Amino acid sequence: MARFTGVYGFPESAEPAQRLAQVLGIPCHIADLHRFPDGESLVRLPQPVERAIVYRSLDRPNDKLVELTLAASVLRRQGAAELCLVAPYMAYMRQDAVFRPGEPVSQTVIGDLLGRCFDSFVCVEPHLHRTPTLESVFIGRPAVALSGAGPIAARLRAEGVPADAVVIGPDEEAAPLVEGVARPLGLLPVVGRKVRRGDRDVTVALPEDAPLAGRPVVIVDDVISSGETIFSCARAARAMGAASVRVFGVHALFGGEISRRFEAEGLGVPLSCDGVPHPTNALPLAELIAGALAGL
C-alpha cells in the first residue's frame, strides 16, 4: 500500500498535482479557494486524506503561504496523520542572513512557519547557496532538495545534443546544476562570474579560456525571472564565438514582456520544468518528486 493516500493541489497548479498523483497511483483533490472582497482567503478541502501530499509551488508566495497554513489546519482537523508539502519552488530562501541592518532572516521565518504545519518537505532547486541542507531550514523535519539537472539532461539526451556542446551556468551558485547536466552527457561544463548591481542590472563574465568558438552552448539556471542574467551570459558566449545558444531554466518566473525579450535576443523560447506552471514548461518533475517521496 502506498504510504500517502492522496494529493491535494490548488487551482493554479492542478495539472502538475494531478500528474504527481497519477505517477503515485493515488487520488488527487483540488482545493476550492474563495477570495473575500477585503482580500482574505477561504480554503475548502471537502475530501479528508489520511496521509496527504499538499502540492503547491510558492512563486508569488504571500497569499499562498496563508492558504497553505489554512489548508494544513483543515486536513489536521479532518484527521490527517501526516502532511508532506511538495513545493517545487520554495519561497524566501535567498535571505538566509542579515545582509543589511533591519532586515529579517526570511529563510528562518518561513522555515519555522511551515515547519509547524507540515511533517516533511520536498522542493526543487531551493536557494540553499549558504545553507547546507533543506533540513537545516525545516529543523526536525525530513526534507529533500531535488536538483532540476536530471530532467534537463534527459531532454538534451532525447534530442541528441551534440558531443561538442558546452553547458554554461552564469555563476558559482549554478555550478552544481551545470555539473549535474553536463556530467551524465559527457559535455564540458563552464561556470561564469556574475556581478549584480541591482535586480535588473547584471553582468556575466565567462572564463577567457573557455573553448566556445564554433560550439553549441546550453545555458542553464535555477530561476529565470528578469532574464537579465541569461541575456548577459548569452551575449558573452556569442562574443567568444559560440555557434548557437539555447536556454533551460528549472523555474520560470517571467512574463510576456521577458518572453519577447528572449525572442529579440535570438534565444527562442527557453524550456523550463513544470514545478511553476508556465507557458515554457516542457520538463516534467512528477517522476523525480515521486522518487523522493518514496524515500522520505
Automatic annotation (TrEMBL):
CDD domains: PRTases_typeI. Keywords: Kinase, Nucleotide biosynthesis, Transferase. It holds the Pfam family Pribosyltran. Residues 165-247 form the Phosphoribosyltransferase domain. GO terms for molecular function: kinase activity; magnesium ion binding; ribose phosphate diphosphokinase activity. SUPFAM superfamilies: PRTase-like. Residues 14-115 form the Ribose-phosphate pyrophosphokinase N-terminal domain. InterPro entries: Pribosyltran_N (IPR029099), PRTase-like (IPR029057), PRTase_dom (IPR000836), Rib-P_diPkinase (IPR005946). One of its GO terms (biological process) is purine nucleotide biosynthetic process. GO terms for cellular component: cytoplasm; ribose phosphate diphosphokinase complex. Gene3D superfamilies: 3.40.50.2020. Belongs to the ribose-phosphate pyrophosphokinase family. This is Ribose-phosphate pyrophosphokinase. It comes from Azospirillum thermophilum.
